[in-house]
Amino acid sequence: MAFDVLPGLGQPLRRLEDPRLLTGGGRFTADRAAPHALQAVFLRSPHAHARVLAVDAALARGMPGVVAVLTAADTAALGHNPTLTEIFDAEGRRHVEPPRLPIAAGRVRHVGEIVAMVMAETAHQARDAAEAITVTYDPLPAVVLAGDALAPGAPQLHAEAPGNLVCDWRKGDAAAVEAAIARAAHVTRFATRSARIVAGYIEPRAALAEWRDGVVTLTTPSQGVHVIHRILCDHVLRWPREALRVVTEDVGGGFGPKLPPYPEQALACFAAARLRRDVRWVQDRTEHHLADTHGRDLEAEITLALDADGRFTAVKVEAAANFGAYVSAVNPTIPTGGMAKVLTGLYAIPAASIAMRCAFTNTVPVDAIRGAGKPEAFVLLERAVDLAARETGRDPVALRRLNLVPGTAFPYRSALGFTHDSGDYAALLDAALEAADDAGFAARRAASAARGLRRGRGLSCHLHGSGGWGDETSIVEVMADGTIAARTGTQSQGQGHATVYAQVLAAAFGVTPDRIRIIQGDTASIPRGGGTGGSSSTIISSTTLARAAEAAIEQGRDAAAELLEAGRADVEWQGAHYAVAGTDRRVGLFEVAARAGMLEGRADFAATVVSWPAGVAVAEVEVDPETGAVTLDRFAAAVDAGVVVNPVLLAGQLHGGYAAGIGQALMEQAVYDSDGQLLGATLMDYAMPRADDLPRFDHALVPVPTPNNPLGIKGVGELPTNGAPAAVANAVADALGGAEVALPMTPERVWAALRSPR
Questions:
Q1: Does 481 lie in the same domain as 461?
Q2: Which of the residues 36, 231, 353, 580 could staple to 177 if both were Cys, CB 3.0 to 4.6 A apart?
Q3: What is the domain-level CATH number for residue 561?
Q4: 16 and 40 inside one domain
Q5: How far is CA 724 from CA 262, 327, 418, 666, in A?
Q6: What are φ and ψ of residue 128, in 5° steps?
Q7: Host domain of residue 124
Q8: Pairwise CA distance, residues 180 & 418, whole Å
Q9: DSSP H or E run through 505
Q10: Each residue of 445-494: pLDDT tens digit?
Q11: What is the pLDDT of residues 698-712, one digit of tens each?
């Protein structure tokens, strides 16, 4: 089904789910009634690295209200979470993957790792009992930075990984890159470290495991119930799949860390089955910081080669990626393939290479967070472009324009082997500058200077490889009561799936969106699904839902022919109605559904499809030279999202993504001390942007539909986060006259840079 047969898309329909959520009708895991559930509390290691010599839970087991205490000895039969992706070194060796057991056995490798689980009638009783457990530790030296972990003599985390090396991964033509660098007219080098960040979602994780007649129903906030179901059953619990049902209702943010299963979910299910009692666990904010996967944490250097005309001839990245204490779900492909996807950006660079050494450290495992390898790539690339412009005396806008992939080159295959489907990058640059009022920048800079402030402007040209994996089924049921139920395997975490999918189906059936009911998040009612990640939901589920609608319409032709007393071949679809060709005789969709009992259509998505949304962001900052304080004064962008289903939802995704990237540029960082202690495990110590930290966001749309899916959609959920940090970083550097400041650009760091000799 092509977009041109789905009229009505592109309308700014307000979110259908918001009235329910705003009036207290949300169905979050912690709100689910389970009055007799045991309350679970996890005892976590205070050490980043230590041998566990003994766990004495005798006192805890005898305390009031305590029903059970589980230690590693009780869960020895459980397996571990495997990764969902894999990488290989130049010799074809797969990444090293030591087991991560639900409860640590023999050794802990990061602060917050689980060493015991307590279940009691109340949460207070469980917490008191957890404090009564005595654990004897033998502390070991810790290492927290990737570069330090890979150095000779570093503390070793796993016997399976000598030198703490997960994998030495490489891609690209290194010889061609080195040759281009050798003959370049100018070479720019830039090194930085991408700070470690936490997701900071509004709803922390939770799990409610309910045991009924040999089946456990796990309700948990997730990005996809089928992924969790498959891994828990096949690998961790080792149960037949019919013994577990996984349900996800409303989710208060995911951003990547809620994609994989965690030890707490497996242990809740295990305990519920063992005790034949319901078991509930609700995470607190400190546990979120200590135990949920983090993002970024990359030490990298980029080399950019230019010829005498200013054209980029080669780009090279050499980096060390911090994987944390274990290899998490999709992290093998985040700093590696994720970065490689976008390393050449919007530019026609003929040679590229990337070398990534991945390391174990005594920190929480790292995994996908919004952008998944791309924001750090664009900080490297776009800072290098600005530096190259400054070093060669060129205008940074003109230098970018000179090197953009021309519109006539699409589909464009990058030097690292990724095919960009479509775009008009020059038009994006022009639209972004117009949205940013480029002509007025000089006057604004002068006005800032008159107030004793330094104004800077920064650009970021960026893109994203959006889309996903196959393994999706959508089912559409047209009911006789005038409603349409749609089941699909993606999972909303606040993006507005109930609205955008309703728009697609309303357009396909010719009905109003309020007739559509979207059902997600239940392994018992949805046959399969890949969940939500990689900015894929609208691409995958909209496509399958449109095709399922088409199948349901086709199924209704027989019943329509009976009602119309016509031959099946003479019945045609006319949007909400079936009609006899060449006549005015027609019958409505729901009347046909009533005659048939129900119309059902099903469609599968069985391919890996990628689209390439792109953008250009322009940030303007003011810097107070007396304090180092940075004020983000203006932020504008141009975006190619392909066909836009709903501009209101698009704006929400863009604004949220910009805010996330701005936070990473100016304030967010999860810092470990040399002993592996996390120094900011609450929102008192971990800064995130607030409304008063953010300006008005202006954006222009430059849509070029992708040919890679029938609706022409490009997923943009992560695109704005990719571009915002680099744009802000370039703006601050411009304000400081080129002085370098590591991200996040805190007032302290900016103040120090202003006073450092250059």
A1: no
A2: 353
A3: 3.30.365.10
A4: no
A5: 30, 28, 23, 11
A6: -60, -40
A7: 32-140+205-282
A8: 21
A9: helix 497-509
A10: 999 999 999 999 999 999 999 986 668 899 999 999 999 999 999 999 99
A11: 999 999 999 998 889
